[in-house]
């Protein structure tokens, strides 16, 4: 699972500052906001503001030129009341302790809204992976695994790919962990290649969940998919998979984009004929007869707009010009908090990222189950069970949306927090 920092442009409600919010500030603000709607013991909310544990480790490696360099790695484990920690490991120069804590907290809500038996975590190494050779990346990953060995494991904390890491990184991690344990332990990570215990359908899952949730929200607002126009920003793993599924289910995808711009066809794009980012990087505009900018795509007068490229693309600057009737968040944190308030005021429903793209962590859960049981599932079974989980999560969020007259985002956080808080309440405080 890849994800990126959710930074928001809203003023910090405690300081009045207009500085961009950090991932940790965003996570804490969302916690307070959801808690305001619920009758939760204050001591539980106070506990949830803090991570359970944060590991900070030095990761020395020998560079290809024989020199030794030391990087800093983190693993922030937020909460485990519902089960082992789960969340990505990113290799990025801007990885910090606080960012890991904030994103780990956010994973707690994402797992809880999907009702997965996991709590949140996030980790990574402050390093630019583009400056490492393959051998250096492998040595870095193996040493990082060794430093975290007592903190991770199938029953404790299960990492996954994130920015700058991929299925190969997870295979090295699993191998390093297994070598030290003296047995093959595939369940220590998810997002592995299927040949070493990865799941079918894992890579496509976030895009598939975005498509399923788009269909459900259209159904909710009485829009049959074959009468629905859709614009998708980003044609990578999330965007292309979502666009192709929705196209196949009858929707008219009128715009898709990559970093260079967007393809636009009001009659509908044949999404299968345009290569995704993985198939041919940045090919969208080269296949287009009519191109528009990414900014124009976001403000097209369509039924549904799906930002699926980056965070912070719907902002104070363009929220008043969003002409779509519905926004479905494919990427992580595409809507800043100020823009979110503007869209709420304009009564444009925004289906939040923690629900829409949660197919990734959900199929990671399936992968973990397959690894523990040493039995792989067919692609058909993975997709069927993903659909069942998405529909169940949607129904739970819809119930809160209708009952409390809140936004879809608030409803999702309310579902998540109430599940985590109830589990804390039932288990009590030890000792
Ligand atoms: P990807 O690298 O496969 O594709 C990204 C796409 O966005 C490419 O088409 C690229 O050209 C385009 N893009 C890059 N910069 C852009 C810009 N400035 N304007 C418009 N388009 C731009 O990435 P992905 O895996 O599809 O991830 C997309 C988003 O979804 C990220 O925010 C990621 O964190 C989030 N996400 C990914 C997963 C996953 O498992 N892949 C899961 C959950 C969330």
Written account of the structure:
The chain has 431 residues and is of the alpha/beta class. Helix content is 40%, strand content 16%. It is built from 13 helices and 12 strands. The chain has a 7-stranded mixed sheet with strand order 9-8-7-6-10-11-12. It has a 5-stranded mixed sheet with strand order 1-2-4-3-5. α1 runs parallel beside α3, α1 (23-36) crosses α13 (408-427) and α12 (379-404) packs across α13 (408-427). The two termini are 35 Å apart. The model is unreliable at 1-18 (pLDDT under 50). Bound molecules: nicotinamide-adenine-dinucleotide. Residues 1-4, 206, 233-239, 257-259, 277, 282, 294, 308-311, 330-332, 357, 360 line the site of nicotinamide-adenine-dinucleotide. Nicotinamide-adenine-dinucleotide binds at residues 1-4, 206, 233-239, 257-259, 277, 282, 294, 308-311, 330-332, 357, 360.
CATH topology of the largest domain: Rossmann fold
Strand content: 15-25%
Structural shape: globular
The helix content, as a percent range, equals 40-55%
**N-C termini distance:** 35 Å
So what's the oligomer here?
single chain
Topology:
Blueprint: H1 23-36, H2 42-48, E1 53-62, E2 68-77, E3 85-92, H3 97-113, E4 119-126, H4 134-147, E5 157-161, H5 167-181, H6 205-220, E6 229-233, H7 237-248, E7 252-258, E8 261-264, E9 291-292, H8 294-298, E10 304-307, E11 326-328, H9 337-345, E12 350-351, H10 353-356, H11 359-373, H12 379-404, H13 408-427
Parallel strand pairs: 3-4, 3-5, 6-7, 6-10, 10-11, 11-12
Antiparallel strand pairs: 1-2, 2-4, 7-8, 8-9
Helix pairs in contact: 1-3, 1-13, 3-13, 4-5, 6-7, 6-11, 6-12, 11-12, 12-13
Nicotinamide-adenine-dinucleotide binds near residues 2, 233, 236, 258 and 282.
